[in-house]
Amino acid sequence: MRRIVFSVSNSYEGISLRSFLRSYVKISSRLCAKLKRQPGGISRNGLPVKAPDTLHSGDLIALCLQEGEEKAVPVPIPVRIIWEDPDLLICDKPAEMPMYPCPGHPCDSLENAVAYIQLQAHKTFTYRPVYRLDQGTTGLVILAKNAYAASRLAGSVQKTYLAVCEGKLAGSGLIDKPIGLKPGHTIQRAVIACGDCAVTRWRTIFCTGSCSFIAVHLKTGRTHQIRVHFSDFGHPLAGDDMYGGSRKEITRPALHCAEIHFRHPVTGKAIRLRSALPEDMLILLKGNRNDEK
Questions:
Q1: Is 241 a catalytic residue?
Q2: pTM here?
């Protein structure tokens, strides 16, 4: 169980608990309702408290977050841990590792790996990815160890992706095209008029050989967004045969979540973490650079 304590400052003197939870703690209504039903879920100075109750400077408001059992089968799969504290676990996901067990990958997912990490550390927390990476995409993934951290981080993590796309792409730009399921498909996406809003910003770092090394930022988070947008743009990601890329030089989409920036959901501290470009993408870029000579 994770206990998070908030101190009522002078500026919140006389505020109701309900208003304090909304304006300062920024707890979601769903989690708030759940904690109200839980004995001791929300307390003031160690005693029961009700939503309309008036708070005073110096009061200590505590949230007691109970965790369920980890359900995935623990499997000793190597995964590098970048950061860990009582609220977050941040790891560097390798290529071809799905986020969850799925057909063809019943026990080699990130969830299986994290279950083993918990088993070794004698810890238990519910598996809560703040966002997802495609199976072939490498890089940084944030797991929230409790519902409060997950709620606070949802949609607020700034991510920088590095990708290798086919063809020469210079400068920078913005792609604003809706994305939805490709007609007749259950997994593959496409740019379609009736799709959901999808906005991608990109900047070329350098061009080499027959490809371009680019940095990408997403304003929305649609499934396969980067892969679909660059395919539609005429520059599919290298290795992404689902969307027109060639697997000749790399066997998975050349896409890496290289940097994340966010404020810690409990401490408020600004955190910026980076992950080095994986070996297969380095080899791809080096090979194309050699082709130029």
A1: no
A2: 0.91
